[in-house]
Amino acid sequence: MTRSISEKLGVTPNMRTLFINAPDDFSKNAAFPLLDLKQKRIGTFDYIHYFVITQKEFHKHFPILKNHLNTKGMLWLSWPKSKRKLTDLNIQKVIELGYTYGLVESKVVSIDEIWSAIKFTHPINGKIYNNSYGQLLSNQ
Description:
Helix 2 (26-30) links the parallel strand 1 (16-20) and strand 2. The protein has helices at residues 5-9, 26-30, 55-67, 91-100, and strands spanning 16-20, 36-38, 45-51, 69-80, 104-110, 115-121. The mean pLDDT is 93. The longest helix has 13 residues, at 55-67. It has a six-stranded mixed β-sheet. The N and C termini lie far apart (40 Å). It is of the alpha/beta class. The chain has a single domain (5-121), classed as Rossmann fold, CATH 3.40.50.
């Protein structure tokens, strides 16, 4: 049996959720359960999904979104595959930037033919993260 996108993302019912720049058909195609979907960045969230095309946008919004991610939450970041939409992002750059802002990656999912997604979470205290693409800064 094929798993839905929402199942692959680990989304569960009633998660406090925020979508940023999501394509119009994302929610429908992902087959989400009932979510506590918010329209504004107020408070913290269990699940944030940010669709981004450029590094400039990443730097502008990612640190703000990180501050709205609860300690056990997940921030999924989607970027265009294979330089589509004139992106300057790829998986290596996304991981590097995520680590720069103090979050760690754990899973990659294909959303559709255009978008890839990577899951970022807060690092676990005391755990050592070794990734050749990113380095956690000691003050994060």
